[in-house]
Amino acid sequence: MLRVSRLTDYGTMILGCLAQAEGRSLSAKKIAAATHLRLPTAQKLLKQLAGRGLVRSERGALGGYRLARAAREINAVEILEALEGPMALTECSHAESQCELESFCTVGGAWRQINRAIRGALTEVTLSDLRRSAPGFRARTLSADLNARMGR
């Protein structure tokens, strides 16, 4: 099963909160309150997101955190990789694969193709898209895109 971690889910909530602030800086305390996260969790995720260039931090009385770019310019792959690390479904799908069976494997190429298709589809989903409240906001588009990328 493909599933993001709880911390990635929380990190996405934080990014959504910052997107809603529309360029204004918010303190970690305000972000934690708005997302109903514990302050230490919010602080940890904000530091991680800032380290990956998705969030900017500003010191001082009027400082805080804000998105480093517009929400429409941040895609789901960037978010996932900032919070989860490199996106790879299998060991051989990772750029630095260390699978000792890779040279004997008959299915690795298919997993790499699936990984590329999912990555491509997620690249087209932006933080703005993730913030939309309509369920299945792009489900048909993503499904069609995955099928096209898989050659179906």
Structure description:
With 152 residues, this protein is mainly alpha-helical. Helix content is 51%, strand content 5%. The protein contains seven helices and two strands. It has a two-stranded antiparallel ribbon with strand order 1-2. Helix 1 (6-20) crosses helix 4 (76-84) and helix 2 (28-35) packs across helix 3 (39-51). The two termini are 22 Å apart.
Short description:
With 152 residues, the chain is mostly helical. The chain has helices at residues 6-20, 28-35, 39-51, 76-84, 108-123, 127-131, 139-149; strands spanning 55-58, 64-67.
The first-to-last residue Cα distance is: 22 Å
> How many strands in all?
2
Strand content: 5-15%
Rg (CA only)? 18 Å
The global form is elongated
The H-and-E topology, N to C, reads as HHHEEHHHH
In what order do the strands lie side by side in the largest sheet?
1-2
Overall mean confidence score, pLDDT: 84
Give the biggest sheet.
2 strands, antiparallel
Ranges where pLDDT stays below 50 over 5 or more residues in a row are none
Helical residue percent band: 40-55%
Structural class by helix and strand composition: mainly alpha
Per DSSP, the total helix count is 7
